[in-house]
Write a structure and sequence with these properties.
The complex is a heterodimer of chains A (259) and B (376). Chain A has 259 residues and is of the alpha/beta class. Chain A folds into two domains: 197 residues, 3-Layer(aba) Sandwich (Rossmann fold), CATH 3.40.50; 48 residues, no CATH class. In chain A, 35% of the residues lie in helices and 29% in strands. Chain A has a six-stranded mixed β-sheet with strand order 6-9-10-3-11-12, sandwiched between helices. In chain A, strands 2-1-4-5 form a four-stranded antiparallel β-sheet, covered by helices on one side. In chain A, a hairpin with a 2-residue loop joins strand 1 and strand 2. In chain A, helix 5 packs parallel to helix 6. The model of chain A has no long low-confidence stretch (mean pLDDT 85). Chain B has 376 residues and is mainly α. Chain B has one domain: ABC transporter involved in vitamin B12 uptake, BtuC (Orthogonal Bundle), CATH 1.10.3470. The two termini of chain B are 35 Å apart. The chains are: A alpha/beta (259), B mainly alpha (376). At the A-B interface, helix 2, strand 8, helix 4 and helix 6 of A face helix 10 and helix 11 of B.
């Protein structure tokens, strides 16, 4: 395994008297899919928001490509190559796929000294990227609202990759999706990883994590329970760590291990 | 599975993606409701008011001018609504800007160009304040600008009475004589062309009085020129520029837009300022045309602007709409108002008509929008 592209060391984050993160460490290597697991309230969202520049850590260090790093705004993280795809906020349904794809990164062309949105270029690139991702569009002007949830996640991932993301943070991309759509998104994650991009995959679904993950870090009540490598851990162990042990074990008996 | 999940190649045509016919594609657009409404309204008045002079040169000029007034404020309201905000203070802003011009130029003796520029600066500063308060407090712009509807109207009446003891200030035409900026809002253009039309007999000429021999319609009012400039400029800004994409994004989902790096606050505040700019253009044209300013001018204009925009296919909650649609909505508004007058219909029925058109257009627009955006 190569050098980590980003290292988070003993990250602590306090909100007033609430300790959301109590010393979490994690590193991500290019070309791996690092799954961040945890139940609701475990601190997953706070942690990735620290990684993507939304929150400043109260304590702890972040190294990006070996150098210490301080983000002041999400924009800093984006320009450093850290892209985050949020579950519901990935796309704007009323806007066309092409306008969404280039939102915040609009291509410009100059006509008589005035900069215009280069629709021709945007449409061409969008259609190309969508074809690569296996999404059928009627046209680049089709509204995102007409796409399925899985397709929206895929468009958002394609967008991040197209704009040079080195680290792709996916915030529960599969939690609201059906079986087929989930499979499509997981296949997309796999393809992106194979292109050499570091993927941080947040989920509370162990089966989705096992499907694509190379390494697993489990968060519980703001603390990390360590990082495990694929093949060294079973889904049951991951499940137990997430739930913090006992209670789920009892439940599992009656549910037949389907959680 | 992780290593076996193959990337799907070029997929076969999805059987569930319906091919749309070219005709359907042309029809399904945000402005469809407004286009249909415009055709309907013109057909209606061509049948009931053809012989009343509504479609003579003067008649056309009358409803064009009224429609152009609506277009000017509708363009501002449209872009602001697409950016996700409302401005209910437009009407009060019109009264305010007019009184500022009149007080400074007539009562205080400032050069008219300075008065006009002052009105623009003050109005746009208030627009920026509207936007700043909406962004900072997180309150709905409906409430913030409703407050300014009252604050500005009250200040305008107070200011007029305090300085001149009157709510109507006249004499602007006299002080505007020879001013370099005033003709940009007053006057008419293409007068030579219209004289030529009159010489050819296409336009009637005055047969009596001091203007004998001159055409009854002597040119295109600057008001109409402003409406056309704002319409074309607004349309290009929205559909062909980066800023236009930001306007859609800010109104569509402000948080998602922020995550993508769109400066949402700047976009919204700029649009509040643009709305104030449009209101001031309206006010200045009106003051130059009438030669006076009145503290009660612009009453209810904010709703007329919003109605035009909504007839034009914009979504009240933002993120979707069309400047061309809003302009057509304004045209419908003007033609119906003047057409009923020409047709001799009882003027109170205007509101009935307008309500019905509003309802029909919005029902059609909602249906179209659902097809386009996949909204449920």
């Amino acid at each position: 395994m190569g050098e980590p592209i980003i290292q988070m060391r003993n990250i602590e984050k306090h909100f007033g008297s609430v300790i959301a993160l109590a010393g979490v460490s994690l590193d991500v290597v290019a070309g791996e899919c690092h799954c961040l697991l945890g139940d609701n309230g475990a601190g997953k969202s706070t942690f990735i928001k620290t990684m993507s520049g939304v929150h400043k850590p109260t304590k702890g260090e972040i190294f990006f490509e070996g150098k210490p790093l301080h983000f002041n705004r999400p924009r800093d993280a984006i320009s450093a190559g850290i892209a985050t795809v949020y579950q519901d906020l990935a796309m704007i349904p009323l806007m066309s796929v092409s306008r969404n794809f280039f939102m915040g990164n609009e291509p410009l062309k100059k006509i008589a000294g005035i900069s215009f949105f280069d629709h021709e270029f945007a449409n061409r690139v969008t259609m190309e990227e969508m074809r690569k991702m296996g999404i059928n569009l009627r046209g680049p002007d089709q509204a995102v609202g007409t796409l399925s949830g899985g397709e929206r996640q895929t468009v958002a991932i394609a967008r991040a990759v197209h704009f040079g993301a080195k680290i792709l943070i996916l915030d529960e991309p599969t939690s609201a999706l059906g079986v087929r759509q989930t499979a499509n998104v997981l296949a997309t994650v796999d393809r992106v990883r194979n292109e050499g991009i570091a993927v941080v995959f947040i989920t509370h679904n162990v089966r989705h994590a096992m499907a694509v993950g190379d390494r697993y870090t489990v968060l519980n009540r703001g603390k990390t329970l360590g990082t495990a490598i694929r093949d060294e851990i079973t889904p049951e162990e991951l499940q137990d760590m997430m739930a913090g042990g006992q209670e789920l074990a009892k439940l599992e008996g009656s549910l037949g291990g389907t959680v | 599975m992780a290593n076996t999940a193959e990337a799907p190649g070029a997929p076969p045509q999805d059987e569930r993606v319906k091919e749309l016919s070219t005709f359907r594609k042309m029809m399904i657009r945000p402005e469809l409701g407004a286009i249909a409404g415009t055709i309907l309204v013109f057909l209606l008045f061509l049948s009931i008011a053809r012989d009343t002079g509504m479609f003579s040169p003067e008649g056309i000029m009358t409803w064009s001018t009224v429609s152009a007034q609506f277009v000017i404020i509708a363009v501002g309201a449209c872009l602001l609504m697409i950016a996700g905000e409302f401005d209910l203070s437009v009407g009060s802003m019109i009264g305010f800007a007019g009184i500022v011009i009149a007080i400074t130029s007539v009562s205080w003796g400032w050069p008219v160009w300075m008065s006009i520029i002052t009105a623009f600066i003050l109005a746009m500063a208030i627009g920026a304040l509207n936007g700043y308060l909406v962004i900072k407090t997180g309150l709905p712009s409906f409430i913030v600008t409703l407050a300014f509807l009252y604050i500005l109207r009250g200040l305008t009446i107070f200011g007029a009475i305090f300085t001149t003891q009157k709510t109507i200030i006249g004499g602007v035409k006299d002080v505007a004589q020879g001013d370099w900026l005033a003709p940009l809002f007053g006057g008419t253009v293409f007068t030579g062309l219209f004289q030529w039309f009159a010489d050819l007999g296409w336009i009637d000429t005055f047969s009596r009085g001091s203007r004998i021999g001159q055409p009854i319609v002597d040119g295109v009012p600057m008001l109409i020129i402003w409406a056309i400039i704002l319409l074309i400029g607004g349309h290009i800004l929205l559909t062909r520029t980066r800023f236009g994409n930001w306007i859609y994004a800010s109104g569509g989902d402000a948080q998602a837009a922020r995550y993508a790096g769109v400066p949402v606050n700047r976009v919204k505040i700029t649009m509040f300022m643009f709305t104030a700019f449009c209101a001031t253009v309206f006010a200045t044209c009106q003051v130059m045309e009438f030669g006076s300013a009145a503290a009660d001018r612009g009453l209810l204009k904010e709703f007329e602007a919003i109605i035009s925009v909504v007839i034009g296919g914009a979504l009240l909650t933002g993120g979707y709409g069309s400047v061309v649609g809003a302009a057509l909505g304004a045209l419908i508004f003007g033609v119906v108002q003047q057409g009923l007058f020409f047709a001799g219909v009882e003027s109170s029925l205007f509101r009935v008509f307008l309500g019905i058109i509003l309802l029909l257009a919005v029902i059609l627009n909602t249906y179209i929008r659902r097809i386009i955006t996949g909204e449920k």
